[in-house]
Design a protein that fits this description.
By secondary structure, the chain is α/β, with parallel strands linked by helices. The protein has a single domain, classed as Divalent-metal-dependent TIM barrel enzymes (TIM Barrel, Alpha-Beta Barrel), CATH 3.20.20.150. The chain contains eleven helices and twelve strands. The strands form two sheets. It has an eight-stranded parallel barrel with strand order 1-2-3-4-7-8-9-12, surrounded by four helices. Strands 5-6-11-10 form a four-stranded antiparallel β-sheet. Helix 1 (16-19) links the parallel strand 1 (2-6) and strand 2. The chain is globular, with a radius of gyration of 19 Å. The N and C termini lie close together (9 Å). 45% of the residues are buried.
Length: 349
């Protein structure tokens, strides 16, 4: 397995010099964040990122993510141009040494939380989603700003997108997914790139938006559209694990044995009685997921892909980017490394 860490580029308060000191660390997960979705990334930006990583003894071989635009998801007038540009971005990433590209098909919002700084009983701060903070909100009638929402959209644009997805529905979204995969996966195959789909976060409808990357049945459907190792999953334990319907160790074992997991996001989550959830420390005892069973499933099935510690808490007064500070993610990496070793696995350097 290959240990990796998400890095938001040269403006990130967590530096490559910090990341390289985490035991067993190998790969950097990043992207070109300031190019508008649907446009082509400059080659020199990718090459610079690869060079900076190499200078620090790290490898830039995972992109998270090349955004899938709303025109692609909705089948809008810019779809064909955006897909062509997407394919070109895959080629350019591959030219810079990238082997895996993570992306998602979540309508409008990449993820939904109601609070980024919930103080836990131990004094740490974490991301949470509480239904009692969400249930009475109506973005079609009032201005709403929630964590994870793209601030580049005006409130009227958000309303227009929600209405458009309501008309499209789940089957319409599946049709547009199929169109995307049938054009993109052959390019990824040619370039030796694994496309790793991130599940919806959380894995159920929000505000009536169709969300389909949610459960085993739908993951099977997605992978069957183009049956290729390049059409794989970024299996995020915390996202799928927000639903009690998903048996995460069983899903990991199944898709890893199939060779259809390109990338693992490893984190724990605590599910509350009403279905709300709180992000927590990576340790199994902190939340609702059996992290040891998840890692054991990876080792038992010979998983050779990448993993990263996903969202961490804000601990020891770090005050970094919510979910992406250094301290708790470094702790998470050390914990995961221990589980890998205890289960007979090994880290690739």
């Amino acid at each position: 397995m290959k240990s990796s860490f998400r890095w938001y580029g040269e403006s990130d308060p967590v530096t490559l010099a910090d990341i390289r000191q985490i035991p067993g660390m190998r790969s950097i997960v990043s992207a070109v964040y300031d190019v508008p979705p649907g446009e082509v990334w400059p080659v020199e930006r990718l090459e610079r990122m690869a060079g900076l990583c190499e200078e620090n003894g790290l490898v830039f071989d995972i992109v998270e993510s090349i955004p899938v635009t709303e025109d692609i998801k909705l089948g809008g007038p810019e779809r064909d141009r955006h897909i062509e540009n997407y394919c070109e971005n895959i080629r350019r990433c591959a030219g810079a040494g990238v082997k895996c590209v993570t992306y998602n098909f979540m309508p409008v919002f990449d993820w939904t939380r109601t609070q980024l700084d919930k103080v836990g009983t131990d004094g740490s701060k974490s991301l949470v989603m509480y239904w009692d903070q969400l249930k009475d909100l109506d973005p079609l009638r009032e201005d709403i700003h929630l964590p994870g929402w793209d601030s580049s959209y005006t409130q009227e644009q958000v309303r227009g997108l929600i209405r458009a997805y309501g008309e499209l529905g789940e089957e319409g979204l599946w049709e547009n997914i199929s169109c995307f995969l049938k054009r993109v996966i052959p390019v990824a195959e040619e370039q030796g790139v694994i496309m790793a789909l991130h599940p919806d976060d959380p894995p159920y409808p929000i505000f009536g938006l169709p969300r389909v990357i949610t459960c085993e049945k739908n993951l099977d459907r997605y992978l069957s559209i183009v049956d290729s190792p390049s059409n794989s999953l970024c299996l995020c334990t915390g996202s799928l694990g927000c639903s009690r319907e998903n048996d995460i160790p069983a899903l990991v074992r199944k898709y890893s044995a199939m060779g259809r997991i390109g990338f693992m996001h490893l984190r724990n989550v605590k599910i509350l009685p009403d279905g709300s959830f709180e992000e927590c420390g990576h340790w199994s005892g902190a939340g609702s997921l059996d992290m040891n069973a998840i890692v054991k499933a990876l080792v038992d099935t010979g998983f050779e892909g990448w993993f990263r510690p996903d969202h961490g808490r804000d601990i020891w007064g770090e005050g970094g980017r919510p979910g992406y500070g250094l301290f708790d993610r470094a702790l998470g990496t050390a914990y995961i490394n221990g589980l890998i070793e205890a289960n007979g696995g090994r880290l690739e350097r």
